[in-house]
Amino acid sequence: MAAGYNKLDHFLSTMPDSSSQRLMIAFARGLEKTGSLEEAVDVADSYGSINTPSVKKLIDREIDKNLQLSTASGNKRSIIIYDILKTIFASSSDSTIDVSQKLGIPPVYKLNYSDLADDSSRVVQLVFFYGDKDGIESYANFMGMFNGNSDWKINKTKEWVEIRSTKGKPVWIYANLPLDNSKGDDPDAKAQEHLIDFLEAKNLNPSVVIHRGHSYHVKYTIKQLPSSAKIVILGSCGGYHNLDDVLRRCPDAHIISSKEVGTRTVNEPILKSINEDLRTGKSVEWIDMWKSLAAKFTGPEAKERFDNYIPPYKNLGALFIKAYTRAMEKED
Question: Are strands 123-128 and 208-211 parallel, antiparallel or unpaired?
Answer without folding.
Answer: parallel
